[in-house]
Amino acid sequence: MFDLLLKNAKIFDGLGSPFFYGDLAVKDEKIAAVGKIPEESAARIIDVSGKALSPGFVDAHTHSDRTALFVNAPDAKILQGVTTEIAGNCGQSVAPLSEKYLDHLKRYLAPYLPKSVPIVWNWNSTGQMLDRLDAQGHTTDLACLVGHGTVRTAVMGAEARPCTKTELERMKIHVAEAMESGCAGISTGLIFPPGCYAEKEEIVELCKVVSRYGGIYCAHIRGEAGSLLDAFAEALDISEQSGCSLQISHHKVMRRFRGWSEKTFGMMERAREKGMDVSCDAYPYAAGSNNGTSLLPPWANAGGVSALMERLRDVRIREKIKADFLVDLPGWDNHAKDTGWDRILIGSAHNETSLVGRTFAEIADERGKSPEETYLDIILSEEAGATIVILSHSEEDMEHILRHPLTMIGSDSLPTAFSGPLAEGNPHPRCFGCYPRFLGVYSREKKLVSMEEAIRKCTGMPASRFRMFDRGVIREGMRADLVVFDPETIKDNAEYRHSRQVSTGIEMVLKNGRIVARDGLLAGPPLGKSVRL
After folding, report:
1. Does 46 fall in a domain?
2. At how many degrees (to 10) do helices 371-381 and 360-367 cross?
3. According to the model, what pLDDT value does residue 92 have?
4. Does the pLDDT of residue 331 top 80, yes or no?
5. Residue 373 is part of which domain span?
6. Where are the alpha helices (DSSP H) in 76-164?
7. Which residues lie closer than 8 Å to 135 by C-beta, 6 or more apart?
8. Residue at 371 is within a domain
9. Of all helices (H) and strands (E), which one includes residue 306?
10. Residue 80 domain-assigned?
């Protein structure tokens, strides 16, 4: 007897095959049968006539590990149909930790941590962190990357210099422990501290460790504006030298460099012709998001948050920072100059919450100050605890990237929720509507890709990319992580200034064969665990 039978579904298998109509049976957390299945063979029957049935979405790029050990039931992802996430991206994992430099990491992650929940950092290694995750559960399964920035911080704090040979050997030990504990690979955030202080050779050596375990290098590359092509070349060189598979994180092109995605994909395609394993992920928004301090020139962030606060209190140094906003420094994406203060919004602020959802230009006009002075005032008053949303990307390139066969979908979202301790601020709308937006706007309406291909980019493609061969596809024996949605109405409702809105059209989400979300509400306990590879 099957546990559950979903009848009369429009089935998208996650492999890009043409949809077909049929039934799907679940037993003991697995897909037990697909086809024409008698009703009397199941204990429970749900008729989903007219609705699409797909594998649960596998989010290729998230930061959900930041709060997973403190708040285990965030609902923003599961209500989009996401059942598995790749966490620990952009060099920012929550392990390994070292007592000596723990304060550096805590202050750096402070903008993303809930203020109303006790936070106890009671682990050191990646294995210990994953054990704690499994002990409490989570709404989604989390496959984790070890973050280069976190590894570097554990060994040498926020030092703005190349590592020594001894420090590199200690980093290798941390990376090896993470891989032996089941991590999918390593991530970097070479565009901001402390990753921006690392030389290429440091990343190559750490990726060699990852390569021995068959892991992947997920690269937030060193530049995404004028240095984009050089940064791509560096990432490809790291992959080739280390033998490590390469995933370019949240591929994008700034408006000022419109058309460059043709060049980046040319580089990726030539690398694949040479036998290199490279692909990328992207989200369907022409805007990014980050820590507010990411707008500063790299030298200003050296030494960590405490050192930055001291610099911002120094009138002379503030003048130097403001002068740098007007120029192009080598190795720095100057969003203040390239994007403009009128296209940079505050996503969250712990102290002055009335600033959330407003641009720096708007706030500056109200205060009668320059946008540069206003920005520095806010970073200081928020103690580097504000996040930002940057409306900076080329829509034309974004559509080219989303359409390309080498691209899978990754939201690049932080953990958040519609209620509870994570329901703070006005995060990027990708946190709430990434997958409905891709399926509704870019597949159904714009016909950028077929619905079959769109779902493959959300399911089977990222699952296989990260070696999770028990999910992402509708086949007998696979994990029964499933999404039932209306392909005619699915759409996102989140907006840049009002992002915390539930999407339309996701009718039911199953995790391990159990209904955990229905009609925009959680409907079951957190069943997720770590995915160890």
Report:
1. no
2. 100
3. 96
4. no
5. 290-390
6. 102-109, 126-136, 148-156
7. none
8. yes
9. helix 305-312
10. no
